[in-house]
């Protein structure tokens, strides 16, 4: 049995990163999450099952000191509160922590902050690096770095991405840093979700493992197409396993679930079976109290008849390969009603008739009837789209109404979104499901927790690569000592 490696999760959210790291052979030493809602989910899944809400609320309140919370394994406060406790930091450094991971918001990150202590204290990436400097872990993961969708070096100006690479390399004893762009679908999650990470090995660990990082960004698709920038995959970069026909789909993820719960069927995908049965990630104290059976976090939303009809039209348009932008034509400004109707009719030319939705509801018998239906349902908001059974999901976000179920006229449940993110069904989300627009600024309900998380499948792959690098360094040192 391989030894466990210790990890700390800063900006932990609901625990997607920690879950994957646990699966990769790491053991939680401490987590920090300031949102009471997300912290509640983390506590329930990694510390102990919450059976007394008032007791947890007291634990997560300002009245409980950061030292008391740290002793339980979860600090439900700002990272800055941890930095203010010399006793905790000294204790963690003495434990020789293997890995510190987390996703501090990095927009606008600048090395200029080093010259202004006030800026340093107020910027979350600097707090992350201050913690790394104080604890001196063997390895570091920084996830969801800004700049992924832009050129990493643009117009000759410093970028937050470049600055963060430099800052991590120069933190504490120094870290050998490798930037990577990884897509969750290449690691067994049924979702097209590209993200950029910085993976760092402490300089002495990197030297022992014979590893030198690269300024170039390793991409997970290089495992399929190769790259002239790299002779081989960097030691800390995880190996991608899913390409082409092996990429999982929405059907693999949720076709065994209906609005009423688990479907009764003899054959389900390997992925769905894994999501249903996986308890191996759970700490023993959680597993012993886990009650299986009913599908948790699977409450379907109630929609009006009009909204359900619109969802059916979206599904029909998807199958007919007609862009959903047609739904905005009836609201087109500066055009007469007759002009709008003519544009809709033109867009519907060649549409299969009668128009039947996936749930067998007949929407219209002819093109004119279908055009009138589109005219009556027109909306300026056409960002909603139904998922495709036979393709991976687009990137799951924190808004529950962005995606429509592939065949049922409804939005996805928390559990369905969690399946697409690769959370096992045994992982239970806590706090309220969703919240209003203004409260989204400070509340982190279940849908947001899921959308913000690192897919555990992706986190596991990164954890495995970091663990192997640590093992390589340890083995090299043992050979040298003998």
What does this structure look like?
This protein has 482 residues and is of the alpha/beta class. It has two domains: 268 residues, Rossmann fold, CATH 3.40.50; 82 residues, no CATH class. Helix content is 38%, strand content 12%. Strands 3-2-1-4-5-7-6-8 form an eight-stranded mixed sheet, sandwiched between helices. A hairpin with a 5-residue loop joins strand 11 and strand 12. Helix 1 packs across helix 20. The model has no long low-confidence stretch (mean pLDDT 91).
How many beta strands in the DSSP annotation? Answer: 14
State the CATH architecture of the largest domain.
Answer: 3-Layer(aba) Sandwich
Largest sheet: 8 strands, mixed
**Number of domains in the coordinates?**
2
Task: Identify the CATH class of the largest domain.
Answer: Alpha Beta
Classify the fold: give the CATH topology of the largest domain: Rossmann fold
Class per helix and strand makeup: alpha/beta
Low-confidence region ranges: none
Strand content: 5-15%
Question: Helical amount among residues, as a percent range?
Answer: 25-40%
